[in-house]
């Protein structure tokens, strides 16, 4: 049940009746467990039924009113979390369903984890209780006006002053202004600030510092701290509820013990020393953040595809015979070939996200036992899956490295294990002869493996011909990027196939997932046909597969995401499909409709129509 | 000179100095003539220097204030046009540079052309002078809540009443509400309304009617007319300046002579009669509208790519050696492989747009001589180039038809002429052996021809195997779409090659255009490598070309678009490249920065921080 209220109409009832699987069990497969479905359902309803959390007016609010509304919702959410004694799992879900980006996201998602990951035991004991009770609000001040992904290029300085046992935090240039951190502009009282640590005249690179920004008495910026919001972002509503901020320091002093000292310390005398905690631990945090991004991407895609599939089932266009009803847009093959691969991708990303979550836990446990063997692969795979181009190099490098070690007989493991079959994969011919053969997961997986391996080997050969490895990487970076993408797509397909090979209860649920897995794999195959053909692993004749299996189940497959109408926030994606009356009603709520004759008529329209515009050489 | 004011800094000076061609001559090649450059320059400066036309605050205005600002700018633009006695060419450019969508766009772009194209001589003499002087404001009311592209599905009725010699305009259902027309919501006094003509009890399908909507005395909606704005659109600013509207009729009566009667009439007695004017004339208008859309697409792309190239030259990231400066983002191959094909596309679309413009003139002249021979092709090509999927079928159909006629020995003409070489193209092997060979326009054109033809022939064979042609079209629609796209891309490449083969003055200008033509063609070739390989016209070894020729000229190539900073409206794309100080200054203008402590602090942040949130079971 994903409806907000008892629906009196269901324009999609026929679609739902035609579905060939058990939707309730598919919800379980999507959410991970029955418990996960139930708790999400409970939190979604709690939010949807609370008038404070309404969001249908969000696009009509001015930036100031939208921000104030965000503060109000955050306070109300916290009140409900306390009153109802919600668990951490419940509280996280409640915030998810409030669905309005704000300072709390950074407080819980970046400030607290940074202290947990990089603070000493004492620092955690001092700061975490304050953060847990919201006695302070924290954000994460890393990026600068002139520096984003390249953290080592940050310019903010933290210079140790042994006379007072303090660090002096300073912004030496305009481009060193902190720029973009969420929650910084207006809400946060504290930040973890990343700056170049300078002591005894030497620059030790980027470290984190806990810095108080605003007075806890009246919220005004502390002396030497300049704070502001960086202005509106593209899009109606959405991220404009967040106070992404700008921050400059003019020689702001903080006690020495506000440097996050888990990995390295500055002593009372100003000596820089490393602790014996391995610095690879920092990568663990990045792996965590990236796996959340993959999970978020799946959530966002599932919402978009839910709206698109439902509306495509409601919307009719062309195809009328003799004045009869027009054809549902969802019945057009061209629409199916666009939508169904995205529907399949939502499920594919969901399952690879589950695997990443497992990978993170596994890496963390190994790290604690000082086993770094899987860290590099986890780092590369999560970076690739996050698909941040600058970091994709990490994937490409590990692929190049693995290939170069094959000759020495070193057997690759984990997601690179397939490279061990190099002899076979480099010369295998695809056994697919008919379209139906593509429904065989073994054939799919082998085609993806052969394509990825051949692209990787080809890159490695080209890179090795360059005058230096760095030069080779630079010259071949677009090819390396494509090889890395091929590897990542192999991982996604593999994890989906693995999921489908498990026991999955519910009538028809497993069959639907198998079919979606095929749709995803064949979509990628079609989209990158050039790669598959160019590496010779398949021939031109092996092609296309119909989306026919998906069509009758499409609406039910998006129902299985279990999104409430409140969470979707879309008139077009309503559960009951009653789109047109709702669209019509919504339109009248625009402030422009408050008056029949618009403001400006008397000044600008009437004089024009009456040919009474005053002419002057200059206004 | 594209600067708004004398620049004191030019952070892009080194880029400009490195360019290997004459930028002033490239401006001529882009604009079409020296005259076109000069008049555009004059109008752009007129707008940029007028404080009424400022637009930097646009994203911060509420919807109501933005709309009022649009009315103000439209009135001021009209005042300037009258005062300065601007020509039609100048007035159109002035409106382009005002760069704020509003009712005038529909008045001049749709209302006036509809009356010109579909009105009789008498109707034109009555209505056009009123429109030309803005004594009335008109819009174009076609789409309905339930009906977009499928014009034949519209539900609004215009029923002739012989008793009073009037048409009764009526909206019989909710889905028949007019929905989306620009200028309708708040500004227009009149509309060309499309409705089903019913007379003597018979439905004669969709016809146009001039209907007055609002009082010319006080702008209030006339009796029986319900009018409103359909609400905010996605994006900050931009199309929210337009009053896209909703309109319902409750038995509104208009005189019979307000039916647009050039193609058909209803007599005083209610008889429906056709005039002897060929109805193909209607297609002429569609060809005109579509060629403007292609031209607009090129303009929009040129602005986006101008901003992206300039900022990529300013922005530095990674690649620092020993603490030296970081690398310009524009130097990364991955960035080049994204940006340069778009830069090349802006030029490619520009030149194919010029050709479409010629095609429109040619078709119009032929139509007046009752020669319909080229109309179908023009209709299909413009539809394809407009890339509206629903209409792309038109392209696919003409391709299928042309192929099927080959056997009968009928020689295809126009853009389909290459199909006459079917014997050769179906079995030719690409002569390209090295990357450099791809710089030969003959090789490029042949590869595109072979690919398009083989896809078309393949589709035709598959369609012919279906039980009926309609069934075949339905089943194969995704393939047909791809074949049509291949044909359209062939046209774009061909027109670019033809342009480059002309005499083009200016040092290095022709060479740059040749190079951009190659970049565009090879980008398409790489992107759709699967098609090229699958049809066997090229082999896997023939691949990749560097973007090296573009790099030193990139900034100058976007300078040649001659966009003012006002028109670009982008801090990141400033002509002088002085991005960071400007970005910093802009941020402070956000209304959220009016106060240091945000509104809502006392209600929602302070109680949270002070642990004084009032708990209650319900707010």
Automatic annotation (TrEMBL), chains A, B:
InterPro entries: ACOX_C_alpha1, Acyl-CoA_ox_N, Acyl-CoA_Oxase/DH_mid-dom, Acyl-CoA_Oxase/DH_mid-dom_sf, Acyl-CoA_oxidase, Acyl-CoA_oxidase_C, AcylCo_DH-like_C, AcylCoA_DH/ox_N_sf. It is found in: Peroxisome. Keywords: FAD, Fatty acid metabolism, Flavoprotein, Lipid metabolism, Oxidoreductase, Peroxisome. GO terms for biological process: fatty acid beta-oxidation using acyl-CoA oxidase; lipid homeostasis; long-chain fatty acid metabolic process. Residues 442-610 form the Acyl-CoA oxidase C-terminal domain. The keyword Cell membrane does not apply. GO terms for molecular function: acyl-CoA oxidase activity; FAD binding; fatty acid binding. Pfam families: ACOX (PF01756), ACOX_C_alpha1 (PF22924), Acyl-CoA_dh_M (PF02770), Acyl-CoA_ox_N (PF14749). Its cofactor is FAD. FAD binds at residues 143, 182. Its main location: other. Residues 22-137 form the Acyl-coenzyme A oxidase N-terminal domain. The keyword Thylakoid does not apply. GO terms for cellular component: peroxisome. Residues 139-250 form the Acyl-CoA oxidase/dehydrogenase middle domain. Residues 283-394 form the Acyl-CoA oxidase C-alpha1 domain. PANTHER family: ELECTRON TRANSPORT OXIDOREDUCTASE, PEROXISOMAL ACYL-COENZYME A OXIDASE 1. Belongs to the acyl-CoA oxidase family. This is Acyl-coenzyme A oxidase. It comes from Panicum hallii var. hallii. The lineage of its organism: Eukaryota, Viridiplantae, Streptophyta, Embryophyta, Tracheophyta.
């Amino acid at each position: 049940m994903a409806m907000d209220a008892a629906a009196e109409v269901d324009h999609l009832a026929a679609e739902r009746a035609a579905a060939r699987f058990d939707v309730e069990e598919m919800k379980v497969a999507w959410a991970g467990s029955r418990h996960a479905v139930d708790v999400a359902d409970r939190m979604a309803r709690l939010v949807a039924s609370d008038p404070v959390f309404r969001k249908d007016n969000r696009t009509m609010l001015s930036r100031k009113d939208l921000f104030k509304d965000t503060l109000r919702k955050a306070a109300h959410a916290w009140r409900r979390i306390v009153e109802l004694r919600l668990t951490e799992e419940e509280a996280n879900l409640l915030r998810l369903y409030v669905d309005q980006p704000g300072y709390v996201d950074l407080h819980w998602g970046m400030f607290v984890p940074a202290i947990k990951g990089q603070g000493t035991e004492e620092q955690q004991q001092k700061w975490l209780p304050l953060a847990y009770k919201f006695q302070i609000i924290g954000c994460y001040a890393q990026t600068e006006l002139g520096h984003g992904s390249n953290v080592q290029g940050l310019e903010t300085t933290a210079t140790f002053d042994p006379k007072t046992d303090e660090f002096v935090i300073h912004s030496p240039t305009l481009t060193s202004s902190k720029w973009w951190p969420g929650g910084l502009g207006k809400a946060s009282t504290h930040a973890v600030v990343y700056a170049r640590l300078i002591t005894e005249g030497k620059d030790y690179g980027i470290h984190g510092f806990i810095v108080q920004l605003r007075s806890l008495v009246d919220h005004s910026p502390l002396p030497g701290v300049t704070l502001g919001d960086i202005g509106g972002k593209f899009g109606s509503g959405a991220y404009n509820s967040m106070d992404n901020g700008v921050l400059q320091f003019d020689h702001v002093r903080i006690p020495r013990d506000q440097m996050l000292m888990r990995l390295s310390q500055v002593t009372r005398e100003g000596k820089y020393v490393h602790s014996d905690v391995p610095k690879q631990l920092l990568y663990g945090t990045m792996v965590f953040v990236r796996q959340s991004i993959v999970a978020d991407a799946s959530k966002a895609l599932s919402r978009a595809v839910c709206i698109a599939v439902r509306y495509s089932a409601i919307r009719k266009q062309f195809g009328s015979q003799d004045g009869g009803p027009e054809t549902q847009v969802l019945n057009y093959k061209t629409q199916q070939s666009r939508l169904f691969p995205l529907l399949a991708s939502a499920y594919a990303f969901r399952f690879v996200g589950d695997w990443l979550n497992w990978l993170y836990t596994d890496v963390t446990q190994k790290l604690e036992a000082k086993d770094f063997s899987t860290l590099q692969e986890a780092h590369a795979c999560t970076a690739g899956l996050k698909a941040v181009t600058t970091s994709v190099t990490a994937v490409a490098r590990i692929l190049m490295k693995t290939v170069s070690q094959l000759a020495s007989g070193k057997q690759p493991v984990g997601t690179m294990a397939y490279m061990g079959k190099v002899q076979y994969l480099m010369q295998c011919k695809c056994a697919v002869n008919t379209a139906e053969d593509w429904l065989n997961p073994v054939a799919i997986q082998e085609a993806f493996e052969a394509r990825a391996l051949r692209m990787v080997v080809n890159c490695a050969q080209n890179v090795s011909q360059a005058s230096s490895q760095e030069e080779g990487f630079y010259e071949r970076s677009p090819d390396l990027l494509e090889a890395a993408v091929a590897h990542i797509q192999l991982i996604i397909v593999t994890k989906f196939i693995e999921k489908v090979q498990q026991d999955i209860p519910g009538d028809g649920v497993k069959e639907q997932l198998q079919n979606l897995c095929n749709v995803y794999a064949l979509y990628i195959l079609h989209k990158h046909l050039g790669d598959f053909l160019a590496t010779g692993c398949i021939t031109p004749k092996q092609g296309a597969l119909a989306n026919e299996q998906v069509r009758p189940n499409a609406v039910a497959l998006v129902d299985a995401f279990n999104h409430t109408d409140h969470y979707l926030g879309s008139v077009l994606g309503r559960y009951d499909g009653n789109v047109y009356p709702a669209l019509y009603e919504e339109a009248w709520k625009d402030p422009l409709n408050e008056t029949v004759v618009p403001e400006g008529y008397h000044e600008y329209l009437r004089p024009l129509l009456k040919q009474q515009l005053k002419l002057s050489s200059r206004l």
